[in-house]
Predict the 3D structure of the following.
Amino acid sequence: MGSLCFLLACAQFEAKGSLAGYFIFNQSAGSSAGSCSSAPGLPQNLTVTTTSAPAKVSASWTADTCATTSVLRRSTTSTPANVESGSSIESALSSFSDSTVVAGTLYYYNLFFGNSYGYSSGTAISAIPGKTTLSPPKIANGSIVIDGSDTDAAWASSPRFDFSFAEAYGESGGTDSVSGYVRLAYDDSNFYMFYKSNDKYVWVDGAGGQWTEDGIEVFFDMNFDRQNDTIPDLDDFHLIFTADPGYLWKGRGDGPGGVTWDTSWNPAISSAIVVDGTINNNADTDTSWSLEWKIPFSDLGIVSISPGQSIGFTFWINEDDTVGHAAQHWYVYTPGTTSTNTSTWGIAQF
C-alpha cells in the first residue's frame, strides 16, 4: 500500500503516467466597477504554478476592480497575518513571480489589495517550488447530489484534473491505456470528490486487499503539522474506494506508538459508483467507471474549513490490470513518499 502526494498543475505521474491540468481558487469579488467606496475585495481565478529548476513560485489572478495596488508577504513558518508580517515580495496588480525561493521548502504567502480606503482581507497561498497547491472551490450547501456523476452545476466550478497512463493488461494480454480525471469541492460541512477512470477492464475480485483492486486511495492530514507529524495519528485518515461499492476500506491513524491504521473508524460516507460495462468480465471491453462521494468534516475531526486553511491531502490511483495485484500510480511529491509518513503528503489549501 502506498501514498500519493497530490498537488496542482503540470506534475508527472511516476514511471508510466503523466498529468495535466490545474485547480483554480474560486472566491467572491468585492466592490463592483465604477463605485469604489471601500477597500478592495478578494481576487478571482487565482492560479498557482511552481518549478524546481530553477526554483520559482508564480501566480496570476483577476484583481478586484477597485484595487489600485497589491501587497504580497511571505513566510516559511505560517501565513503572514497582515501587510507588515513576514517579508515583502514584489507583486504586480494581477500576478507575481518569486524566484527567491529554495526547492523543496514550504512557503506561505498572503496577498492583499489596496486603494485609498485601505487593504483587502488577505488571500493565503501555500506552495512548494516544484509542487503547486491543490485548491478545491467552495460550493453552495446541497448543490451536489451523490449519484456517481458530475453533471450537477456545482461541479462546473471545480476544474478537471486530468490523468493518463499506459498499462499492460496482464490477464488477457491486451493493452489498457487508462485515463480520467478528478474533481474536488467543499461546502460548509462536507468534503466532496469525483473520480472517473476510462478503464477497459474494470476489476474488483477481492483476491487481495482493497489496494489491489481498481480504485483510489485518499489521505487526509487535518492538523498539517509537517515538521512533527511524521506517522499517522488521530488527525490522519486513509480511505480506499474501489469500483465495487461494497469493498471500501477506512482507517484512522493510531500513533504515536506505530504506523498502523485503526479500522474501527466508521465515518458517515455517502458515495455512488457508476460502471459503464461489467465488473470482472474479461469477455467484454468496458468504457469507464466513476465514483462520487462526500464525507462530513465532523468525521475528520473538525467543525468547518476556514478560508486560507491548509491540510495535508493526497491520493493514489490503483489499477488492477496485472495478475495478483494492482499497478499503482501516484503524483510525485518528494523522494521517499510513503502512506505512513504524513510529512511527505501534499497540500490542499482552502
